[in-house]
Each structure stands twice: as C-alpha cells, then as structure tokens.
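To assess whether ligand presence alters the predicted conformation, the chain was also submitted together with adenosine-5'-diphosphate. Input:
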Amino acid sequence: MTKWVYTFGNGKAEGRASDVTLLGGKGANLAEMASLGLPVPPGLTIVTEACSWFYTHGRTLPDAMKAQVLDGLAHMEKATGRRFGDPERPLLLSVRSGGRASMPGMMDTVLNLGLNDHTVEALGHDAGDARFAWDSYRRFIQMYGDVVLGLDHEVFEEILEDEKARLGHEYDTELSAVEWQHITQLYKAMLEEELGEPFPQDPQEQLWGAIAAVFASWMNARAVTYRQLHNIPTAWGTAVNVQAMVFGNLGNSSATGVAFTRNPSTGVKELYGEFLVNAQGEDVVAGIRTPQSITEAARIASGSEKPSLEKLMPEVFGEFSAICTRLEAHYRDMQDVEFTIERGKLWMLQTRTGKRTAKAAMRIAVDMVDEKLIGQDEAVTRIEPASLDQLLHPTIDPRFERTVIGSGLPASPGAATGEIVFTAEEAVEASEAGRKVILVRVETSPEDIHGMHTAEGILTTRGGMTSHAAVVARGMGTPCVAGAGTMRVDLRGERLIGLGGVTLGKGDIITIDGSSGQVLKGEVPMLQPELSGDFGRIMEWADRNRRMTVRTNADTPQDARAARSFGAEGIGLCRTEHMFFEGDRIHVMREMILAEGEEGRRLALDKLLPMQRSDFTALFSIMHGLPVTIRMLDPPLHEFLPKSDAEIAEVAQAMGMEPAHLRQRVDALHEFNPMLGHRGCRLAISYPEIAEMQARAIFEAAVEAARETGAPVVPEIMVPLVGLRAELDYVKGCIDRVARTVMDEAGMRIDYLVGTMIELPRAALRAHSIAEAAEFFSFGTNDLTQTTFGISRDDASAFLTTYQRKGIIEHDPFISLDFDGVGELIRIATERGRRTRNDMKLGICGEHGGDPASIHFCEDIGLDYVSCSPFRVPIARLAAAQAAIRGKNG
Ligand code: ADP
Ligand code: MG
Ligand code: MG
C-alpha cells in the first residue's frame, strides 16, 4: 500500500531532512526539527507523488490518501488535546505547500482552517478572546476564498478598507471583536453572491478543498514562470503540509516573525530578522505595519523606537537564539527560519538554508571553517562560482536610491560612471585628456575596439548577450549594458534619450550597472572590490584542490596583467588580430589585406612586424615563466575591410591607389559566408608571408623577453581552423623554418610548441592523425559550437531565445557547452589525440572556459587547463576546484 502521509510532532517524526524528494523541503525540515525535539506544532506531510496522482486523475485526491490524512489528524488531535471541528475545543489547521526546491511565495497557504460559524465561537470562548477568534475567522475566509474558491483577494481588501474608513480606524489592530464579526458577515455575503453558494461550513470539506488547491497551485502562472526561470522540473510536484495552528495573533504576548541565523547580506554572525506583535502569517512581509527588530543591536542600528524581541520578551528571545545556534550546528549552514509566539510560547514553523549575497557566502563559509563547523573543501564547494562576478567589480552602494533612466541586458558585470561619448574616437580623446567616459552606441563593431578599451563602460541600445559589445566587454572586464531598448541614441543630435523623455547630451554624466542592466543619471557612490580577506582564503583552499590549470584569454598587456593579478597561470589564447585594431594599426592591416601582390603585402607586413614584436615582448615579460599560446591570424578578412567611402579614400591615399580601384579590390574580397570563408590557416596557406611575419615577431620577442626577465616563456603557436592534417603540416613548416632562422640569428635556443585549435568537426574526428603534427590541442569551442550546430553565433540570438522559450533547447550552447554533441566531439578528439601522443597538452579556450558547468565537463574528460577572459579567472579557479573535489568524493 502506498504510504501517502508522514507525520511529525512531539519529538518524533516519520520523515527526516534527507527526504526532500518525497516530502519537499518544508516537510522534510519540519520532520527534522520535530525529531530534534524543537517546538514544532504537530502535523503531517502528504508526499510529492500525490501531486502527480492529482493531475493524472482529473484533479482528484486518492481515497487511500484521505484515509491516511484522517489517521494523521487523529495523531495531531492527541498531541494537542483538541479535535478537528469540535464545538468546544476545535483544532485548527494550516495547509501549506512545499516542493523539493524552495519557491518562496509562489504557491499558496491557508491558515485557520476548521473555523465555521460554530467553531469560531468556541475558539473565542476557549481562548477567552473573542476578538482573536473573529480576526482568525475573517483571515481564514479571505485566504480560503482566494486560494480555494478563486476570488480575487482585492475584493476582500476593498470591503475591509471601506469598513475601516467608515469606522475611522487606521490599523487592523484597532478593530474590535464586533467589528471583525461584522466584516466576516460582509465577506460571507459577498462570497455567496459571487459564487451562488454559502461559504463551506464542514471542516472536512474545507480540508480536502485546501489540499486540492495547494496541488492546483503547482500549475498557477506565477509558479510555472518561476520554475522556468530556475530550471525546476514540473514533474517534481509539491508536497502538502497539514499542521496544527499556533497563534501569533492572540494578543500582545503573541507575535510572528522571520529570521536569518546570520546576516544574509554581510555574512556577519548575528541574528538578523523581524517580527510583529499580535499578527499572523505573512503580516511581517506584507508591509501592513512596520516590523520590529529581533535583536537590540539591530534596533539601535536602525534607529527604531519600537522595542526589539530581545527587550520585549527576553526569555523567548533566549530560547529562540539558542534554537538558531542549534539549527546551524545541525545543518552546518546559515538558516532562514519562520516562527510564531503564542502567549509567550515559542513555536518553530520552518527552517531552510538561507539565500545570501556573494559577499555573505564568503564570510559565512570562512567563519564556519574557523568555527570548525565545516572543512575547507566544503567551504570551497559552498561558493557559487558565477557569484564571484559580484565581488570582482565595483558595485553601486546598495544604500543609494537609484534614478533609473533606462535599462537593458546585464551584459558585463560591474558598475561604471563617466561622461557620455558617442564615438570611439571621442572616447580615446577624452580618456587621453584624463576624463572618464561611457561609450554609448547603437551597437559596436570591431572598429570601436580602441574606444571600448579606454571607456569605463559601454552602453548599447541594440544587441543581445552575445552581441559584439557584450562579448568584447566581458573579455575586457568592462561593465556593459547591451540592448537598452528603452533608450534611444540620436547620433546626429548627439543625444541619448531615456525613460520619460530624459535627454542627455555628450559630456553629461551617467552610470551604468552591468550587473542589473540599469542606466542611472549622474554619478553614484560605489563599493570597491575586496580581493584579500575571506576571498583570498577561499581561493587559497580552492587552488590547493585544483587539478586543471587556469589560463587566460588575453590580447593586450593590460589584459595579461589583470589576469595575472587574478591568478592566471598562463595565456591560453592570445588573438593576434585584436592587436591590429589598436590605434593606427588598422590602416596598416588594411593596406596588407588590400595589397595587390606579395611585394605589397611584405611592405605592409614590414610595418607590422615591429608593432607585433613589441606587443609580444610586453606580453612575454608580464607572463614570464608561464606558457603563452598565440594564435596565428584567424579572422575573416572582411572584418578588416574598409566600408565607408571615407575609409576607402583614406586607405587608397596611403597606398597610392585610386579609390575606385581600391573599391574594386574590396568588392573582390567580399564573401557571402565569411565565417566559413577565407580565414584561419587558409590565410596562412594563401599568404605564407603573413605566418612568417607573425612567427618571426613571436620568436624575436621570446628572445628579447628571455634576455630581459631571465625567465623565458615557452611560446605555444596555435594554428587556427585546421581541418586537414596537410594544412597543419604546411603552416608548421613555415613556423619551424622561421624558428631556425631566428635561433641562428640570436645564437640562442628557443623552446616552443606548435599545435592547433580543434574547432571543426573534421579536426576532432581526425585528431589521431593531426596529433602526429600537433604538439597540443586547444578546443576552440565557440567555433566548434558554430560548426557542429551549423548555427552562426552572431545571428543565433534571434532564434535561440525562441528555442529556449519553446523548450527545444535548455540553454544557449554558446554560453554553456552542449555536452551531448559538441562535448562528444571533444571527447573523441581527446581520446584519439592522446592515443597518438599520450603526453599531449589539452585545453579549452572558448567562452565556455569560464562557464562553471563546462569546466566540470573539462575536469571529467581530463583536460589539462581551461582558459577564459581575465575577469573570469577566479571563477574558473573556483569551478575547477569544485569539479576536482566532486571527482575526489566520487
Ligand atoms: P511560504 O512557503 O510562502 O513561506 P508557509 O507555508 O511557510 O508559506 O506559510 C506562510 C506563513 O504562514 C508562515 O510563515 C507562518 O507565519 C504561517 N503559518 C504556517 N503554518 C502555520 C501554523 N501551523 N501556525 C501558525 N502559523 C503558520
Ligand atoms: Mg514559509
Ligand atoms: Mg575560432
């Protein structure tokens, strides 16, 4: 026979904390608290499976379950000495939802169930307080009417407000027994008129109605949306808890409250919570009256006149704080608890692991290690890696009242303030003059890179989370709000128009919050990141556990320096083409691309060589002693082509060419599918002199930097977009020749590796053959995802969001690795590559290298390192440590 019902109370329980799947979080923890001997009103939990039964049987309840609920009721009656529906000492119930994952406020609760026109009198008589009884009854009718009978709660509030106005009362607490009784009658009359039948008087009918309503609330719109947002499967269902009522609204020695066992925003070890005297249920959070602080310290800090619980009811407070300490010791984590005091007697109604900010999470984990509640490994696993984003950037002081003038996507975290500029050139000019700027564009393109580099923050009005602005900003660690559709850029008028028509011009100050997507007017107070202290200790423990190394994707000395300060252990990807967007280099680059023959190209390349060499020298000096992977020129040429007439005229002049003629060259280089076109190693094969120049720059820089620092780097030269073994052989041939020449010239030996990026399915499949030439593989998962799915990353956001909404895919494969498809190719390439070369170094350098779930995958298949943008390095270090700890613990 199915066991539908688990009881708890009086120091015993049939369930326990680990039964979350069966009993839901609330039920499991009520059982656990009861077993611990804590004061929990007796009750029962109907298992989550009953929820699916309910939906597969036309929204009805199984008879066997009803029978077990009635048995459970008998147990509650015994424990309380009251009887359900009893005309003298009625037992009242709360009917509460509670699934496996907490969904705060998403589903419904009914309190004071079992009241009717007779039991209300008995309740008042028994408590010696008629006002309390009528207050409870009106609450019950309102909740039952709303949750079970489907009436809008506002209709009840209207009646109440009208009555209060008529009677001249401001607060609910001012109403007398008779006045509540009258309101109850108005409620019932309204209900009967609306529904055509009277309010149900039979307690059992009420009970089955409320249980069914809780199951039904699993599919209400709020809950469905919440589950979608938080990836909670519909199949989990909710449990239902039926519990004896205790009353916080029984006069001035009664109260109800909520508390965290530590401060959830700072992590400080102090009870943190609020309560209301003579109140019930959600009154505290509903904002009907201003709640009071639990501790005296908090009351003083808030400057409140109203007494704290500590002062008002010192004994109850003592018991409560002892229980909180006990719960923390038991659960070994910060708890979020709900409680009620009935005539001076404390009752615990809920406990769960409390949500907290990233900062608090750090503080709590470190303190708990010091308190010997948890070990260091566990402290490391307690921190959500992605939450470190909150800690690594300046953030807006939460105490500050924000004036929001627009909002978009939180594309790159952190907050930044500066004056508005509308072009990259203005950004560079202003920052050279020592002013801070926010670059405001409709959208950005590679030509804006130099402006993006100098800007404090970037704001675009178009584009998604993987738009150019978003990806580049994240890479640079620059705060960015992208796709702020509520704002408009008027380029000609040099104006930014925000919500409510707020109009700002060039030079006006704005602040963007890349963590929330908000745009604010003017300058606002900021909090600076704190990288030592708790953060430092957690990272030290994390690094001790880590197997994979963490490298960074860095193209510039600034990036490399930032990454090293965040703990990067090398560069996993240096994209050389980004070097050509800086300053005037784009012009030389254009000359090179558009040159008519080898001679013209060599001329331009000669100009690029010293620039590139000095970039590499700087990079190698910063990364002294560490490996640096440099990718040969990769981009589709079209990204560099001049577009406007002005740009064409400029390049033509520099090259001594007719603009019309140059226009023809540009047109000839036009490609229909540049991403699948003339790019990657295909460039080096058509124009080997490009590869030769780059190799020379790398080797000469290696020599120079080694002489300077005495700690040579081992350059790892990476050939992009290889699909055929012969492609790699050809390019490697060029590189090796240049290496020999430079070594002869310098009279010095240089250690280096030549490897390839695995970013085409063919390369993954032929890995055993490619590995004969390649000394390392780096998985370029951005391209590998594009080429495996046949989806262009730049065009995907238009339909991938629809795919997600319609449940075709769960997550964006460009953000979190597609384990089944792309992951399978990585697995294949890893196995086949290592079969040929068992000491082969393997890493990942796509955006996924900074994504915690993808990092777990990399650990599982045994990659040597992950590489990610500088600001994600700490996230990757933590995620890699967590993956290793999980592996260690099986
Ligand atoms: P939620 O899941 O939204 O937190 P709960 O089931 O915890 O909903 O119920 C909301 C509130 O109702 C509780 O915080 C508590 O104040 C009150 N409540 C629930 N059960 C009881 C009970 N047995 N006695 C008194 N109050 C209760
Ligand atoms: Mg609750
Ligand atoms: Mg690529």
